[in-house]
Write a structure and sequence with these properties.
Number of strands: 29
Distance between the termini: 73 Å
Helix content: 10-25%
Number of helices: 8
Radius of gyration: 36 Å
Structural class: mainly beta
Strand content: 35-45%
Shape: flat
């Protein structure tokens, strides 16, 4: 016979404990069953726990170097226990043995109590849980036993106010007569019922929680929720308080319900939700109040806290190109409520070593329209100097925007006048164009995309933008041409929270005009931090046979970039990327591509420092097939980019 030197036995029952005490003890309800070396045999329902003497203990188990190592075995199972098994003290400490033997018993005491309460919440009101510790073997053996008993079912369910019983909304909750009792559905039912009654005309309805009554003879429970439903009411008038800079006519225009209609909390909250989408408010509290003028009506009071209406922002870019450091930056100021109805006015200034721009933009919202969300006016002064051309001019655009949840369309009417010069074309210096720009986009993002830090890098997102711009200009008797472009940006996590792949592509084509008749500012170019990294701005693509090797540009372009983003710490990341592209004087960017080397290729890597404002990136890029000025040494071809935010 095997000799058992020492045994600690605990057997705890929960049959007679009051409901609220059991519920308080469970609190978190996310702990589970203990597993180490895991075996599971269900104790028969309705039978007593297996006695300790029947347990098989193997004294010849492999000895451990630590006398307090232990294993865990389980007898018993219940719905959902496997999901919470890894939250127990015993399980979490299997690889971290305690400093003294009695710590094992303390962990077991806590875990047994948690299991009992979990079973109670699943409707096992007569369950028993016990454990035994055998310390005559090394590792020590912890055996946990579960006796489920019968799972109780719901026999009666009702909502009661005094002597009046309500049953009309019971089909809206997750409790059904004849089904097993579930504490989660039982606890959430009062809030659901309260909401339902408030949506059908009872603005002050309250359904309260109450403990279930268990019948141990029939193994059933009766559930009765006390309630104060009150009287039915109609809508009165909306009241808006807290407005400072926003005119009351704006929130009032969002009210869809009419005075005298049956009250509905859902309709009252829709007004709040639509107002929050304007971006003008920090918070809106909705509260029904008995109308002093009519006892059958309730007024709806909206207590509003406005957002600050002025913002200022900026950015800084630094790039190293052709042995020269080029600085660029932007500064913008925005007023989000110019005339008191959500009109947005912004002024922005951008400047760098080679260009400058001043831009103003006014957006006037159009509320309660199915066709248009806002009307915009954009004015821009531009002075740009680059290797292919110089451009100095003025543009104006009137546009209308329609937005949906994940898509939008912008239609405009634009005027543009500029002076341009270049060493590679001989057409007139002044140009005037009229155009009809149309932009459409579709976007998708998982939670967190667009936020600062690694959360945005590791999120899934997709953004597709299509644009077309028919032009009429003073070229060959008002020559008509058509500029089109498509851009795709996407990111997919490969290893959750550790690595993601980001992809971008660009395709553009200009129809109905020869490249030589098109002024360079209207052509497509490649190269730069937002294009083919590794080539300086506009310097990837065919060039003129002159001393400056001036980039010619083209009527079509194709670009693609792939980037792997790795998380090193919560603050630091590493980026590895490659870009490719093609440019042509025809509408087919691949006209001159016969083999892979005919494409333009770049590769690079960098480090990113993640902040609440987004990543600060330092990237080095190198042209893999530098087709011009081949006499440069390899380190002279490197391009350095420093910027806030990802390239795509």
């Amino acid at each position: 016979m095997r000799r058992i030197i020492k045994r600690r036995i605990r057997n705890i029952q929960i049959i007679s404990e009051p409901f609220f005490r059991r519920f308080k003890l469970f609190r978190a309800a996310t702990f589970g069953i203990m597993v180490g070396s895991f075996s599971c045999v269900l104790a028969p329902t309705g039978s007593e726990p297996v006695s300790a003497e029947e347990e098989v203990v193997n004294p010849e188990e492999t000895l451990s170097k630590n006398d307090y190592d232990f294993n865990v075995h389980i007898n018993g199972e219940a719905p959902g226990l496997d999901e919470i098994v890894k939250g127990t003290n015993l399980y979490k400490n299997l690889k971290s043995p305690p400093q003294h033997f009695y710590q094992i018993a303390e962990w077991a005491d806590q875990d047994v109590e948690n299991i009992k309460n979990y079973l109670f919440l699943k409707g096992f009101f007569e369950s028993k849980v016990s454990y035994e510790i055998y310390d005559n073997v090394v590792p020590h053996q912890v055996n946990v036993r579960i006796f489920l008993g019968t799972r109780f079912k719901v026999a009666k369910l009702k909502v009661v106010e005094g002597e009046k019983e309500y049953t009309d909304q019971l089909d809206k909750i997750n409790i059904k007569v004849g089904e097993y009792f579930e504490a989660e559905a039982f606890n959430e039912a009062p809030a659901i019922l309260t909401q339902r009654y408030k949506n059908i005309g009872y603005p002050f309805a309250v359904v309260k929680p109450a403990p279930p009554v268990a019948d141990h003879y029939s193994d059933t429970v009766e559930i009765t929720y006390p309630a104060e439903i009150g009287e039915k009411k109609n809508f009165g008038t909306p009241i808006f308080t807290g407005l400072e800079r926003v005119r009351e006519t704006l929130p009032r225009s969002f009210v869809r319900w009419q005075q005298g209609e049956l009250y509905s909390l859902e309709q009252a909250l829709k007004v709040r939700d639509e107002l929050m989408k304007t971006g003008l408010f920090q918070s809106i509290l909705v509260q029904p109040k008995q109308s002093p003028a009519n006892k059958d009506e309730v007024d709806v009071e909206y207590t509003i806290t406005e957002e600050p209406n002025k913002e200022i922002g900026g950015s800084l870019n630094i790039r190293y190109s052709d042995q020269a450091v080029q600085f660029g930056g932007a500064l913008d100021w925005q007023h989000k409520n110019v005339f008191g109805s959500g009109e947005r006015f912004a002024i922005g200034v951008e400047a760098s070593n080679s260009s400058g721009m001043i831009e103003s933009d006014l957006k006037v919202p159009v509320y309660n329209s199915r066709l248009v969300n806002d009307i915009g006016i954009n004015l821009r002064l531009l002075d740009e100097r680059s290797l292919p051309y110089t451009k100095r001019g003025f543009s104006a655009e009137l546009s209308a925007t329609k937005k949906w949840l994940h898509a939008g369309v912008n239609v405009g009417l634009a005027y543009e006048h500029f002076k341009s010069s270049s060493a590679i074309y001989s057409v007139q210096d002044y140009f005037t164009f009229y155009s009809l720009p149309i932009d459409a986009y579709v976007t998708f993002s998982s939670q967190g995309a667009g936020l600062g830090g690694f959360f945005s890098d590791m999120a899934t997102y997709m953004y597709l933008r299509l644009s077309t711009k028919p032009h009429v200009g003073a070229i060959q008797s008002n020559k008509f041409f058509w500029q089109n472009e498509a851009n795709l940006f996407a990111s997919v996590p490969i290893i959750s929270d550790l690595c993601s792949l980001a992809f971008r592509s660009r395709f553009g084509a200009i129809f109905n005009i020869d490249r030589d008749l098109l002024p360079p500012p209207k052509r497509f170019f490649m190269g730069g931090g937002d294009s083919l990294r590794g080539y300086a701005y506009t310097q990837a693509g065919p060039r003129a046979d002159n001393a400056q090797k001036t980039p010619i540009g083209g009527n079509s372009v194709f670009e693609a970039g792939l980037e792997a983003r790795f998380k090193v710490t919560n603050f630091i990341g590493i980026n590895v990327f490659g870009d490719t592209g093609a440019l042509s004087e025809t509408v087919n960017p691949f006209k001159h591509v016969k083999k892979a080397d005919d494409l333009w290729w770049t590769a690079g890597a960098g480090v990113s420092f993640h902040t609440d404002f987004g990543p600060l990136r330092l990237d080095l890029a190198y042209p893999l097939n530098y087709k011009h000025v081949d006499s440069k040494k390899w380190y002279q071809k490197l391009q350095l980019y420093i910027r806030f935010g990802n390239s795509f």
